[in-house]
Amino acid sequence: MANRRVKKISIAMDGPAGSGKSTVARRIAAELGLLYIDTGAMYRGITLKALRQGISLYDETALGRLARETSLEFKEMPDGSQHLFMDGEDVSEEIRSMPVNDGVSLVAAVKEVRTALLEIQQKLGARGGVVMDGRDIGTVVLPRAEWKFFLTASSLERARRRWRELKAKGLNVSLAEIEANISRRDEIDSNRKVNPLRPAADAIHLDTTEMGIEEVVDWIKKKVGEGKTNASL
Ligand code: DC
In this structure, is residue 230 part of a structural domain? Predict the structure, then answer.
């Protein structure tokens, strides 16, 4: 009975790049038997397609059309990881490349792109049972989520985390380059007109600067386990 109840809840996980939310959201989803949805990956997919087609990242009309015409699907791999398929092609690796990192905030600031992706995200979340991570999940995509977390960390720590991640994948990027990229994205994501990065009024804030992943996961699981939600169940 308790298990069935846990399966229906939705968790919104928002915060800036490198706050740890994706890793934490993925872990929480696996441990609570919920579906993990990485909405940032969807914005990255549209950015990748625009770059491949030579569409200007300032051409809002073309980007909007692209987002409406593109099929985006998450599929679970045998190892349990979620891969993004764009028009049937697995683009999970390529959406993490530096050109996409550099351009994605511009694409995510376009209203028509957000409207198209919001529709897909809300369909995925309609039946509950999801952990969704992004920038506007608690405020716009799942405003009625039972749990809303807003994760932050200092910009230096966030840059260090991204740097370690990329280094582990064999990519040779300087910490300074990543810090610059993160600050620029923070700036665009927080100041854009449409659905900027903002904590929901009822979100639970957590500064993860001094915390390891395990610690954050345990902290959130404990909160959720306590059963007191910030929206009514
Ligand atoms: O979480 P991420 O770094 O993969 O996100 C990529 C970009 O997409 C980031 O610049 C912010 C944007 N984004 C957004 O605007 N809204 C979301 N729900 C998720 C991501």
Answer: no
Contact (Cβ atoms closer than 8 angstroms) between residue 36 and residue 25: yes
Cα 24 from Cα 147, distance rounded (Å): 14
Q: pLDDT of 40-90, one tens digit each?
A: 999 999 999 999 999 999 999 999 999 999 999 999 999 888 999 999 999
Of 82, 106, 155, 189, which is best to mutate to test ligand 1, by the most ligand atoms within 8 angstroms of its C-beta? 189
Is 223 part of any domain? Answer: no
Output the pTM of the full model.
0.90
Structural domains in the chain (count): 1
Q: Is residue 2 part of a domain?
A: no
Q: Is the CB of 17 under 6 A from ligand 1?
A: yes
CA distance 91 to 230: 35
CATH of the domain at 168: 3.40.50.300
Q: For residues 220 and 149, is the Cβ–Cβ distance under 8 A?
A: yes
- Residues 9 and 34: beta-carbon distance below 8 Å: yes
Asked if residues 21 and 151 have their Cβ atoms less than 8 Å apart, the reply is yes
Segments forming the whole domain that contains residue 103 = 10-217
